[in-house]
Write the structure tokens for this entry.
Amino acid sequence: MKVYFVGAGPGAADLITLRGARLLGSVRMVLYAGSLVPVELLTHCAPGTELLDTAQMDLEQQQACYVRAKEQDIDVVRLHSGDPAIYGATAEQMRRLEALGIAYEIVPGVSSFTAAAAAIGTELTKPEVSQSVILTRVSGRASAVPELESIARLAEHRATMCIFLSGPHLKKIVTDLLLHYPPETPVSLVHRATWPEERSYTGTLGTILEETKRGAWNLTTMMLVGAALDKGMAAESSLYSKDFTHLFRVVKKDEEAA
């Protein structure tokens, strides 16, 4: 018996990995985060699979499901939105599984921050502009963010930043970002990337608050911010330059002379 923590991806049913879809179709019990995972993902499950929505369950109730599955000697998929490694609340489940002697495996998924970047057609890194991506969020009731990782502190790097669950805190976030990023810094909001109701906003830190309606971006919204989002900035890597030699492509001498 084994529990598989499967990343469901950002929302679209066809953005789950092949391995994740295969596992959904092979197990007899699936626990899924119903408030975050679209029901369309469950079409990958086999008929008769026991489907349990964890949105109404606490950790002890979820643990009871694992115990019951162990008694029945059946495998379980625990379906998490995005990738289980990012804000997945999986560590506490794994500790309990280890205490129960239940084996588990993690199957990575497509994160919502990469889906958001794809939705607005951008790359998060550009040579000599930003080569770092900061994934973060603001403090919420369920879990606090350490002071050293506050938006204001992280903004000092002026790297590309992806801020999860940013919608309800836009004013505070923008105020903190403007401590270090210039007002003309590009910023985008993406609500429910890859879902049917996906929508986005693109502007600058200096205009976002006046151009967006308060409360319109609550809940599942990702904020992307940083100079790398500027599509007019023509920074290019040397990787594919005709003059750049590496292990798999050698510039011939006559080409160098030319």
